[in-house]
From TrEMBL:
Catalytic reaction(s) noted: D-serine = pyruvate + NH4(+)
Enzyme class: lyase
Source organism superkingdom: Eukaryota
Name of the molecule in the record: D-serine dehydratase
Keyword Zinc: yes
Signal peptide: none
GO biological process assignments: D-serine catabolic process; response to toxic substance
Purpose: Catalyzes the conversion of D-serine to pyruvate and ammonia. May play a role in D-serine detoxification.
Length: 462
């Protein structure tokens, strides 16, 4: 009996058929709702991350869970990279990446992809099937309990080639998954790994979820400094628990998009940033250090609320609406001028936009200045949570419906018309994509920024 594989059971629409349907069309002619990606900010965001980590001598591991596409993965890694480090949240993402990873391997690249949850017994056979195709050391796993190691111990080289790379998941500081940095459970877990010939301990992995509370570039970098410290405590515990005969440097992998993008701040010459860089160099004397992140290529309202990077530096926007690559195209279904404040109905609710809040404003998305109506295109009244607080937001949301509400003074209010199409910046990009089968792709730096240039299918399944 063959192993279950998501690409075979969760079929994606034909890319060729999608391109035939959409490429060359104007966005105003695209059916709604639609998820739209802009290549221009994607290029800027991905290049900035790769340049910053390289300048600091750090490794980089890209998370693919936000977008679930091969095309955007290429931008995250850089088109000529020979060090392909990825992390995924579902086995489906890893299975769908297999053709791309084989292509990279054929071009001489080093491949390593992590399954981003402590491994469950039911997923081992599917991950093993990928490892058999890619080869030894290419598929890594998280563990935070000895039982997970026991489940791997019975595998032989015919089912999973070579030793399986393992990261111990460190909860630093949120207790979502993993062990606390000073947990007494680290030692028996390390001993279980050391006594299992089939596996190899390669590092400690931490995710700084609390960094979403950041309110300035320096605070984001402080979150990252604290994360490095916590992860190092866990790594030290691991190292002290390893048998003397163990060899090889451990890797500390850490980050979340606010702290990962904050490494760009560290390149600016300030006393505090120099302190951070010096500490990183101190940690690198003992460990290899890599940064991981996932939302940074597209950004969203939650990311802007962290203020984790300056809005501009050397004339280039870093963390601003100009660098938000994901927008949701919706259509105005009705308008309600007689209500307490002006409202408009859109045929897009929580199954389109998600239902995650944003700390900077009381809404579920912000209407951009784009419009299918030439009378409203480039409208200046765009809601800014940090300044004007005037404009259209998604003020209420239900399953299939959303209610746009006008916030602030109605002087000079942008009127909306039934049938008009507008764009929305969602709160959380990871949750605004899952119910779309594909992305409509444009290039904002081209001579026709509203012309569809490609369509990217999203992977489905678990």
């Amino acid at each position: 009996m063959s192993t279950f594989s998501a690409p075979s059971f969760y079929l994606s629409p034909s890319k060729a058929a999608l391109q035939l349907q959409y490429v060359g069309k104007d966005l105003k002619d695209v059916p709604t709702p639609a998820a739209v990606l802009d290549l221009a900010p994607i290029r800027r965001n991905c290049e900035a991350m790769l340049e910053a980590t390289k300048a600091l001598g750090l490794g980089f591991r890209a998370h693919v869970k936000t977008h679930k596409t091969t095309e955007l993965t290429r931008y995250q890694m850089g088109h000529e990279s020979k060090d392909i480090r990825l992390i995924a949240s579902t086995v489906s993402e890893i299975e769908n990446l297999l053709p791309y990873l084989l292509e990279c391997k054929s071009e001489g690249a080093r491949i390593n992809i992590l399954y981003g949850l402590p491994v469950a017994l039911s997923h081992i056979q599917r991950l093993a099937a990928v490892a058999r195709v890619l080869g030894e050391g290419t598929v890594g796993l998280f563990v935070d309990h000895p039982r997970q190691v026991e489940d791997l111990a019975s595998l032989d080289d015919s089912s999973w080639p070579g030793r399986i790379p393992l990261f111990i998941k460190i909860a630093a500081p949120i207790s979502r998954a993993g062990l606390l940095p000073e947990s007494a459970s680290i030692r028996p877990l390390v001993q279980a790994i050391a006594s299992t010939p089939k596996v190899q301990l390669v590092g400690a992995y931490a995710h700084m979820g609390e960094s979403y509370g950041s309110r300035s570039p320096q605070e984001a970098l402080e979150f990252l400094m604290n994360e490095v410290k916590d992860a190092k405590v866990g790594a030290d515990q691991i190292l002290q628990s390893m048998p003397n005969e163990s060899s090889g440097r451990l890797t500390i992998s850490l980050g979340a998009t606010p702290t990962a993008t904050a490494v760009q701040n560290a390149l600016v010459e300030t006393e505090w940033n120099q302190k951070f860089r010096s500490y990183i160099e101190e940690v690198k004397d003992k460990y290899d250090v890599e940064i991981h992140a996932g939302v940074y290529p597209v950004l969203d309202m939650q990311q802007l609320a962290t203020r984790a990077r300056p809005t501009s530096a050397e004339g280039k926007p870093l963390l601003s609406t100009e660098n938000m690559a994901l927008r949701i195209l919706v259509e105005v279904a009705s308008t309600y001028d007689e209500r307490e404040k002006p409202e408009a109905l859109i045929a897009a609710g929580s199954i389109v936009l998600g239902r995650e809040p944003c700390k900077s404003y009381p809404g579920w998305g912000v209407v951009t200045d784009w419009s299918s109506s030439s009378a409203h295109a480039g409208a200046s009244s765009v809601y800014d949570p940090e300044n004007s607080k005037t404009g259209w937001i998604v003020g209420r949301i239900s399953q299939e419906h959303g209610n746009l509400t006008w916030e602030g003074s109605t002087n000079g209010m942008r009127e909306l018309a039934v049938g008009e199409k507008v764009m929305i910046w969602p709160n959380h990009a990871c949750m605004a994509g899952p119910n779309f089968g594909y992305y409509i792709v444009v290039d904002g730096e081209s001579s026709e920024p509203d012309k569809v240039v490609d369509v990217w299918s999203r992977w489905r399944g678990w």
